[in-house]
Amino acid sequence: MARRLQQLHFVRNRAAHHEPIHARNLQRDHDFALELLGWIGPHAASWAEGTTSIEAVLRARPDG
Predict the structure, then answer these.
(1) What is d(CA 32, CA 46) in angstroms, rounded to the nearest whole number?
(2) With bands split at pLDDT 50, 70 and 90, how would you rate the model's confidence at 13?
(3) Which of 11, 13, 15, 59 is nearest to 32 (CA)?
(4) Residue 18 — left, alpha, or beta (φ > 0 → left; ψ -120 to 50 → alpha)?
(5) Average pLDDT of 34-39?
(6) Burial (CB count within 10 angstroms: exposed 0-12, middle 13-18, buried 19+), residue 18
(7) Nearest partner of 12 among 28, 31, 27, 33, judged by Cα
(8) CA angle, residues 39, 30, 57, in degrees to nearest 5
(9) Where do runs of H (alpha helix) occur along 17-53?
């Protein structure tokens, strides 16, 4: 759990400080965030998964 939280904290700080995150595996980061949220509260994870638009954003990213 601590490792997942550290990873989420790292990517959150990078994004919050407008540092580059485009080279990261953002799908993995998203999956880790939902996994962590699921450990805390399964209903919260379901809600977050149903309301986020990041899946569509990641699918629309250009390759390369």
Answers:
(1) 14
(2) very high
(3) 11
(4) left
(5) 92
(6) exposed
(7) 33
(8) 145
(9) 26-40, 42-51
pTM > 0.90: no
Give the dihedral sign, CA 31/46/62/23. Answer: negative
Burial tier of 14 (Cβ tally within 10 Å: 0-12, 13-18, 19+): middle
Number of separate helices (H) and strands (E) present in the chain: 4, 0
Give the separation between CA 5 and CA 63, rounded to whole angstroms.
Answer: 28
